[in-house]
Amino acid sequence: MLAIVGIHTRANSCTGISLTSKDGAKIVARTVEWSNGENPSDYLIVPRGYERQSMLPDGTRTGMKYTAFYGYVGLASEDYIIEGLNETGLSAGLFYFPKYGSYPKYNPNTKDVTISDTEFVAWVLGNFETVDDVIAALADVRVVATDARAGNLHWRVADKYGRQIVIEYVDGIPMVYENKLGVLTNAPGYPWHITNLNNYINLQPGTVEPHKFGDIALESIEHGSGSLGLPGDFTPPSRFVRVAMYQTSAPVVDTPQTVIQAFTILESMTIPIGMQFADKTKIPNILTATQWTTVTDMTNNKLYYTTMYNPIIRKFDLNNIDFTNIAYQKHPLDTIKARPMVDADINK
Length: 348
Hints:
alpha+beta, Penicillin V Acylase, Chain A, eight-stranded antiparallel β-sheet, five-stranded antiparallel β-sheet, 6 helices, 19 strands
């Protein structure tokens, strides 16, 4: 139960983006943050046929049974998938959604179709190929929180065909929003964020042309004045606007460069440890609140990640995994928890 609460209370900032490469590859990327300390993070390889039964609010694992029809790779905390990709090219991830929305009230009589919010991603990855499939199945399940003290979640689901949705439970009803922009952060709800973008209609790439302000001639002091007014704080609304600006102004390049570009954009969202703590005597001893970042190439079935300990990009190529014969696996994202540091080569 503590592991489940940990996901909710620590994953307090997540930022997601989407890019399409010149080759047509559909790519999603996101960060995962915990500010209260390091959260154990692993990658899981889940084979076809892997069976699981959901945790319920009463603390028992007697909820909905679900079997992985498709194999997948997921990045997780305590076996609960936060972000992943399945062998058909379907991507799914959970994002923290505190103080907004509400799940259906738990009913023990429907426990056979009830699944924990922290297991929703695993269910999606193991059972579906497209966004349409996921939407059709929502009516058949009841999502509940497994601890009343924890906040809510919302989810991003995307497929290799280019469709992407956000799922948010409002008054117990699953609301599905087409995510045509491809950006997601946290609360408030997704429609609010889209409306809020209208407050930044003046933002544009590049430099504003000189113009008259009454009798005064105005001219940009330096390059990049089109981004004047771009919010720089780490609240979900500001991160949404900022990353939307970076994403939409990014050049269209080949797939390998697009993967790098996604990491680069999200590096600008990294939250330095200390920014979230007024009491400087109680800052946790971790490198950054942004503990790991993923980039998912749904078209080519590849999942990449970096961590706060290791900025080297690591890759899973799902095309090379035999999901019929491979065993369930769980491994830490980092085996060495220290940033590599080497001497510069000064030989000439």
